[in-house]
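Quick one: structure tokens for this chain, please?
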Amino acid sequence: VDNNVTRHLDKVLAPDEKKKPSFDFLVLHYLGLDHIGHLEGARSPKIKPKLLEMDDVVKKIYAGMRTWDRSGILIICGDHGMRDAGGHGGATAAEVLVPLVIIKSDNFQCPHPLGPGPTVAQVDVAPTVAWLLNAPIPGDSTGRILPSLLPVDYRQHLYLLHVLAAHNAKQSLPANTEFYQQFKRAESQFAHFLSTGQESAAKIAKDFYEESLEDMSKYLTETTTDFDLFAIGIAIFVLYILTGALLCVTLYSFQQDPQRKTSVVRQHRSQASTIVAFAIIFFLISTTLLISCFISETKSRFCSFNPIWYLRTMNQTGDRWLFLPDTADWLNAPENSFYLEAHIVIGTILTFGVCLWNVRHMNNFMQMHSALTVCATACVFLYRISTNALDTRYAFLKTYDPVIIVNVFWGLLIFQVLFELATYIGMFTKCGFKPKNNRNKFTYTKPKAKSEDYFYDEMDEPWNIEEVKLNLARSLTHIMYNDMMLIIILLMRPH
């Protein structure tokens, strides 16, 4: 993505025959560093090379600006930061504080050579850019002009502060607040300076404007993000009622009908017995592992290979100590790439085995679901190879486009659902395709008329339409379960 932006820079930055740039305002949005943070975290070894690449981009832009016959300004900033675990969206200092660099093409002097400068608000960038372009300030803007870009001339400086303060004062500010009264005092002193030319009045007006602008910006920012707590409470209550009603209807729909004695009842009882047996076995194994871990002086072999314990070590530092190393950081180290690849391969194969075992709960007509699961797993491996998460001796596999692979993967999942629905409505049966056995769960046969001397055999009794719908719902549930596992192993970070 970043290369597609950089490769156009030489052409865009080149001046015309009059040494004038071909644009008034240019925005370059580089996404590579953000992608690295989301995928590999804040301590990824790819961050340093990416930052060096961005340094070269800044150098190229500055060199191009020096060839123009007019002065230009380069603003470098980020729309968000990054937390220690990668990603963003919180309110920590690492996520909300980002560097802001302003470079002039001529007569450039760093105003803060000994360290970082003052902290400014993100809303200050929009009015600053509008002023530099001689454009009107955005209507909903609540910021100020960045101090380092304010004009040197005192009259222009005061006039700009007057325009900003008057703009913010029009946005429904309460007149009884202190900052609004301070704004009125600044207006009075500014008018006095324009009429008399006294420097003392200009100095007082400047101080009053800056104080009122700071408080105005803070007030407008806080009131902009106002939530209607009453409406939110009503929405939560309604969702609670709807969720409870949906749960009751779902539980009622799965209750057994005593008037319908078919093999579905036996299947329900068999599934319930399997679930209970699995729960008992899981409880016994977990209890045995827990006792062996606490009684033994050294952890037993079974305890050492406890999957839950191992997964817990992936991020055992918690949110407060995310900067400390753990198993995930060890796997991400370049020298341990073999073990990371082994995790990817083993995890994908185990997930593939679970999906194949789950296929038996579907209407696997012509083994189509098994074939689609195999193809989707192959797409996962190809995607990992094309994104260099897996190494292979077959170099041609790395040339595949990851976007095309992901699109094929989504197409397979969608086709699987459509195939299940087509099987349900009998499309393949009408076209002449018939399964080798007669165990199609979606075949509906009209039941014979009952008589007093007729007794149904459980194995010969036909399905009724309610049972066919129930089988469809059960099969689609298992399809979604399979699709969810395949999507997880495709999109989640390898560690």
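The chain has 19 helices and two strands.
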